[in-house]
Structures are given as C-alpha cells and as structure tokens.
C-alpha cells in the first residue's frame, strides 16, 4: 500500500470505503461528502497514522473507520481539524490526536 498525498486539496464525494489509507496525508484538505465507512463486504477503512491536521470535514461518513495505531503506523492526527455533521459512530479513535479541534 502506498500512502497518498491529498494535502490542501478539495475532495467532494470521494469514495474511500474499505480502502487502506494508512500513512496518507490530508493536511489542510477540505473533505465534503467523503466516505470512509466500510465497503459492501464490511471491510473497514484503515486510516492509521493518517494526517488530517488543519483539515475541514463536512458531511463525512467515517463510521467504523480505524484511526488507532497498529504496526508501523501511529494514531491519526486531527489537530486543528474542523468537523461539521461527521459520522464517527463505531470508529476506533484510540490514541488519535484530537487536540484543538473545532
């Protein structure tokens, strides 16, 4: 799996359901109606070690997504992120950096 770089991009309606995005970066990205929920066969989206610092989330579905550390990846970073109408139900946010979120 190659980490992806979405720094400072605007993502509208992107579907990442069930994908392995461990180590990717969304620094200062704007995410609107993006899907990180499980795919049709129930595989959760993996977002370990992903950088979401200073990002903006609007109407994002991250239900059951995995943000917790494991193996080579630390926890996800949401420092200074802004979330509006985001579904994180069932998501594993263990050790994720949620400091100064708006």
- Quote the distance from N terminus to C terminus: 31 Å
- Overall shape: globular
Low-confidence stretches: none
Count of DSSP helices? Answer: 0
Major sheet summary line: 4 strands, parallel
Q: Give Rg in angstroms.
A: 12 Å
The portion of residues assigned to helices is under 10%
Count of β-strands = 4
Word description of this protein:
With 102 residues, this protein is mostly loops. It is built from no helices and four strands. It has strands at 10-12, 30-32, 56-58, 82-84. The chain is globular.
Kindly summarize this structure in a few lines:
With 102 residues, the chain is low in regular secondary structure. The chain has strands spanning 10-12, 30-32, 56-58, 82-84.
Topology:
Layout: E1 10-12, E2 30-32, E3 56-58, E4 82-84
Parallel strand pairs: 1-2, 2-3, 3-4
Provide key terms for this protein.
little secondary structure; 102 residues; four-stranded parallel beta sheet; 4 strands; 0% helix; globular
């Amino acid at each position: 799996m190659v980490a992806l770089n979405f720094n400072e991009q605007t993502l509208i309606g992107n579907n990442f359901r069930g994908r392995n995005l461990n180590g990717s970066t969304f620094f200062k990205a704007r995410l609107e109606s993006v899907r990180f929920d499980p795919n049709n066969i129930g595989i959760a989206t993996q977002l370990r070690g992903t950088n979401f610092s200073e990002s903006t989330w609007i109407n994002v579905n991250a239900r059951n997504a995995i943000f917790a550390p494991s193996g080579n990846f630390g926890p996800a970073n949401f420092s200074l992120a802004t979330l509006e109408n985001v579904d994180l139900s069932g998501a594993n946010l263990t050790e994720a950096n949620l400091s100064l979120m708006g």
